[in-house]
Write a structure and sequence with these properties.
It is a single chain. This protein is α+β, with helices and mostly antiparallel strands. The protein has helices spanning about 1-10, 15-20, 30-50, 85-90, 115-125, 190-200, 240-250, 255-260, 270-280, 290-305, 320-330, 385-395, 440-490, 495-505; strands at about 60-65, 70-75, 130-135, 140-150, 155-165, 170-180, 205-210, 215, 335-340, 345, 350-360, 370-375, 375, 415-420, 510-515, 520-525, 530-545, 550, 555-565, 570-580, 585, 595, 600. Strands 15, 16, 17, 18, 19, 20, 21, 22 and 23 form a 9-stranded mixed sheet that branches. Strands 5-4-3-6-2-1-7-8 form an 8-stranded mixed sheet.
Length: about 600
Amino acid sequence: MIAEELAKRLREISIAEFFEKNKHILGYSNPARSLVTCVKEAVENSLDACEEAGILPDIMVRISKLDKSIYRIIVEDNGPGIVRNQIPKIFGKLLYGSRFHAIKQTRGQQGLGISSAVLYAQLTTGKPAVIVSKTSPKENACRMEIMIDTKRNEPEIVSEVSIDWHRPHGTRIELEVVGSYVKERRQSVYEYLRQTSIVNPHARITFIEPDGSIHEFARVSNELPKIPKEIKPHPHGIELGTLISMLKTTKATNLKKFLKEEFVRVGDRIADEIIAKAGFIGRENPQSLSREQALRLLESFKEVQLLPPPTDCLSPIGSDLIMRSLMKEFNAEFVYAITRKPKVYSGHPFLVEVGIAYGGNIKSDRVEILRFANKIPLLYQQGGCALTKAVESVNWKAYGLQQNKNELPNAPAVILIHLASTNIPYTSESKEAVAGIPEIVDEVRLALQEVGRKLKEYLDRKQRLQKKRRKEEVLLRIIPLLAKKVCEVLEREEIDAERIVARIMGKVHFERLVDGDRVRLRISNYSKAKRSFRVYEMCEGEAKADAKIIRSSAHSTIVWGLELMPDEEITIEYRCTKVINKKPIVEGLDEDIVSGAEISFIT
């Protein structure tokens, strides 16, 4: 019969077989993207391992071209290493990992990442992945070649040896894949590593390109990020099927204990309120509840006011580190960042961080968006991402930028958006775009508007400063001529025209007078406010002064901490053989109110 014949054709397939035929779902859709995806999965594993072990990540990525379209990828880290019996499962079994059931912020959750890269290498070149792992400086490293039995979704160990390895501990993976290496594109290995270094300022990444070029993404901070803590499910984020499963598998002996032990933010009072609204008494055996009873319990969750989930399950980058990373990468004239307070969608905690960099070395006329989810760069599907839509929905004209309706603004600027959550709502398994969850989009817009207001303040101030400088330039052209003529008529010594301009413009004026080894600094506060600042002078050799002196083998730096009232003038003296800096260096004053000195940020 036809039905019997059709039945004979039916068979079960493993998850490895499924992704073998549908590799594009995981981001292996074309040679260039596949190469980026392989590097991405390995680097993210390295970052996670280092952070969980409390180690500042030191990661090396090397790509070598072996043939026309075959590349060798090597990713090596200084993490804690992997114990021998876990190596085959981690690299050779899909949907194997420790984070799928954990409710906390993590880069990976599904257990697909690095094993999918091993599967792609096996599929395109037929070569096994080579893993080297070392867990202790007292032991040799384990070198293992691994392939995946796709019929069973089980690892196959091709070979295994013990070797001597230079690292005291760490992991190294080597893959040979069919790929295409591209440079100077938004979707490239270099761009992925560059963006990764921006949102992971505690990591040092070394990248060696196929042509031998070496790029060092330096560490900005020596402080490890806060390790997020695992939390229990929140009642407002539970669905009926999940609740039924939890009821069947719980070890709690009654319903009240089940609510208190299996959920976060549920104590005695809340548990009693939920039980009463659902029509229970609290002593029921959770495992005996029917589907209808579970549905009543779920409906009662929605009627009870609950505190939002705790936010120690999240690990933000921090506004200070975002600003430092943006300044390091783009050397912008203006940088600002904000970390919003955590919010909740469907019971899942999340927070939004936004940074903006403007001007400086940013030469593009169109705003560049850097999108991140749990510190992972999102390089693809920018147009279909809710983070991009949020940027386009903001009226940037109100913040001093040019913009066509519902488009990205036109300005030499970079906008960084980081979404951290226990459950990032990706649009697909390839994790390249964020879905349009209203609560998330609203938070992103609020953060964008806040950094936009700061940018507007800066641009307005910059415009005022430019007008002030044009006025000052006119005065500097006219006043010296007038002063010279007046002094000639009165037969007096020529006066300092810059001081006169400083008085007219309401600035703090610095004047250095040198007489042999004796130096005097005359400082006049012509502004209308009290000014507190530091002054630095760098001298060749030894220096003598009634101030703090920082000595080194090459020179001495004198530091004064000063405070001047409006219209106050002071003179400070010191002695040295030679002053190195052309003008006094000032810290703590805005550039637009300083005359006769250089602004610097000395730490």
